[in-house]
Design goal:
The protein has 22 helices and 21 strands. The strands form five sheets. Strands 1-20-19-15-14-11-10 form a seven-stranded antiparallel beta sheet. It has a seven-stranded antiparallel beta sheet with strand order 9-4-3-13-12-2-21, covered by helices on one side. β6 and β7 form a beta hairpin.
Length: 643
């Protein structure tokens, strides 16, 4: 009975706050679904201008099903929406929760995991016509930038880790947004609102040029072919998911933007459209995507589209110029290379990503030689969680010293931070009996601003290549500004910089390492990662959405799979803990049992349960028997693959 009750609590508590549409509903809501699961050839007819034209009955049937299912799903999901006046948060459970409803997928040849099931299908379709892992990732990114535009899109930026099996070599693509040339350290003058909303909060987007450079280096299919599946949504529309609806409800200021208002505001009801509602992207955005498809990624930076975007930006009051767009270049560089033991190697991007923080966490904890026994029994689990939390605190304290390596001399610091020897040194400083609530004990004397929402995609292709990419526009719906003529929803990444004069709640000064400078990239907690085994095979492809909780979530899922012997689904499902040094308490997810919470409090940890998703992981794990894959139930993504 306890298991049933726990399962119901998981469904009612988490789903009522920020879960997504049911999987069986998502699969039916667009005619593109039939197109994606059809046969593909290698010629231009793969994505005809009017797909399915030869099968009128199928189109009619799909559209009828679309209307029916959209209405039904919108109604059903609407009944489950969180209502503070009707919903009471449950107490922390006494027993572990039952498994979530997400699928543990197994594929033999290839897999694509995204936050939106349609986008996983598009990635799979690209792989099925001999597209590379990078091709699949790019196609899924364009899709996700539309279906999850509250979190990512062509007005934002990304970090990508690429592994090429034939070379047995990994690369990092840093396409994080940059500060414009006219940006100044004190440009916000104490106004946190201007840093987070409106025209001054916009950084120079890196998404499209980053994808373009990655495609030029590792793509196999024509660029246009990667965007055409997403353009189908311009014809048929797409349904608002629960994840998008939650983003809308968290960013109600979007109704002040004419484009977003037209797309998501139901004027007849004076309310936002509900989940399951069919909406169509703005014609301006669809024209922009078509131009990028036909002319290439540089069109947004030094073509006629760049001129249109610069004009749009100028009209909003942004300080980004045509020259800023022209000068923007992504950075393709060596990733951090971190031995994890047992012959495994972690590849993760250097700063301004938080790959070094992930590496530091795993290095600190590897000295304990964790086994499945370390999470068996309440006392063992309390001690193990305590050690993990302490590792989080040391690592997130180090994050306050990080920033864009093009502007800071961090080579020595990063080399030390990611070394196994330094991990052992920090491990020896962990007291198994108690914690410290003094941030300076962990090395934090300044603070770095937390960052916000994102989306993640993981890919393994049949040839053994792998891609892990995390993309963001920062806040839900970024700056809340859509460029009028181009339809591009623009980021608010300037809020991720630290600014002088902004002390935090603990009266700590902001980190100078992350101060604004022209053309500088702000610090990020994104850390898309790939783990390679001793034979040079992609063993694990992982990353997460979730702002500051990304690095801790990726670390938890990684250690649960590699050290604690859980399945990849169990690793993703299990309730999470998080500590980012500021504020000085543990944030934990519903699902941590009461005895564990009491035990951690006894060691001096403040324990605060967070609401909502927290973090959302997409993870692929490969061994000799197949590719095991799970999309986090917390957002409603899915995995598509090839057997």
């Amino acid at each position: 009975m306890g298991s049933i009750r726990s399962s119901l609590h998981r469904r009612n508590f988490i789903n009522n706050q920020m879960d997504d549409m049911p999987m069986d509903t998502i699969g039916l809501v667009s005619p593109i679904n039939a197109f994606l699961h059809g046969n593909f050839s290698n010629d231009d007819s793969d994505y005809p201008e009017k797909p399915l034209r030869s099968n009128t009955k199928l189109i009619i049937f799909s559209l009828v099903m679309l209307a029916f299912v959209s209405a039904l799903s919108g109604y059903l999901i609407g009944q489950a929406d969180y209502n503070p006046s009707k919903f009471t948060e449950p107490e922390d459970p006494e027993q572990p929760l039952a498994p979530s409803a997400s699928w543990l997928h197994v594929f033999q040849k290839a897999a694509v995991c995204t936050d939106a099931p349609h986008c996983s299908g598009i990635g799979r379709a690209i792989l099925s016509i001999n597209g590379s892992a990078v091709d699949a990732a790019i196609a899924a990114m364009f899709c996700n930038g539309l279906l999850n535009q509250q979190s990512m899109g062509i007005g934002g930026g990304f970090f990508m880790t690429v592994y090429i099996k034939e070379e047995e070599k990994a690369y990092s693509v840093i396409a994080r947004e940059k500060a414009p040339a006219a940006a100044k350290r004190d440009m916000f003058g104490g106004s946190s609102y201007e840093a987070s909303k409106g025209s001054l909060s916009i950084g120079v987007p890196g998404e499209v040029r980053g994808m373009w450079e990655a495609h030029k280096r590792w793509g196999r299919l024509p660029w246009e072919k990667l965007i055409k599946p997403t353009l189908e949504f311009c014809k048929y529309g797409f349904t608002i998911s629960k994840a998008m609806y939650d983003g809308i409800m968290s960013a109600k200021y979007i109704k002040n933007d004419p484009t977003l208002r037209r797309m998501y505001w139901d004027s007849s009801k004076n309310a936002y459209y509900r989940p399951g509602t069919l909406v169509t992207p703005s014609p301006a955005l669809c024209r922009t995507l078509t131009r990028i498809a036909k002319k290439g990624g540089d069109e947004m930076y030094n073509g006629s589209l760049a001129a249109d975007l610069a004009d749009d930006l100028n009209k909003t009051g942004s300080i980004i110029t045509a020259e800023d767009l022209k000068l923007y270049q992504p950075k393709i560089t060596e990733p951090l290379v971190v031995p994890l033991g047992n012959g495994d190697i972690l590849y993760t991007p250097p700063p301004p990503s938080s790959g070094a923080i992930l590496a530091n966490i795993l290095n600190i904890l590897s000295g304990y030689n964790f086994t499945p026994e370390n999470i068996q029994g309440t006392e063992n689990k309390i001690l193990t969680y305590h050690r993990i939390i302490e590792a989080f605190k040391f690592a997130y304290a180090a994050r306050t010293r990080l920033g864009d390596m093009d502007f800071l001399d961090l080579e020595g610091f990063i080399s030390n931070l990611t070394s196994p020897e330094y991990g052992v040194e920090l491990m020896k400083r962990i007291d198994d009996l108690k914690t410290s609530n003094d941030s300076s004990h962990y090395g934090a004397t300044t603070y770095t601003k937390p960052d916000h929402g994102t989306a993640h995609i993981s890919v393994i292709s049949e040839d053994g290549d792998a891609v892990s990419v995390t993309s963001s526009i920062n806040f839900y719906f970024g700056s809340g500004v859509t460029a009028t003529n181009t339809g591009i929803l623009l980021n608010n990444v300037m809020d991720d910089f630290s600014s002088p004069g902004f002390t935090n709640y603990f009266n700590l000064e902001p980190s100078p390492a992350n101060f604004i400078e022209p053309h500088k990239r702000p610090m990020s907690t994104m850390c898309p990662s790939i783990i390679i085994d001793r034979n040079g095979n992609a063993k694990m492809v992982i990353g997460a959405a979730g702002g500051t909780k990304i690095a801790s979530a990726v670390a938890l899922v990684t250690m649960r799979k590699l050290w604690f012997g859980q399945t990849i689904k169990e690793s993703v499902d299990e309730a999470r803990i998080h500590h980012q040094i500021f504020p000085m308490h543990v944030e934990y997810e519903y699902g941590i049992i009461q005895d564990i919470i009491k035990g951690l409090r006894a060691k001096g940890h403040g324990m605060v349960r967070y609401r909502g998703r927290g973090s959302v992981v997409c993870a692929l794990y490969r061994n000799k028997t197949g590719i095991y894959a799970n999309a986090d139930f917390r957002k409603g993504g899915d995995v598509s693959g090839i057997d």
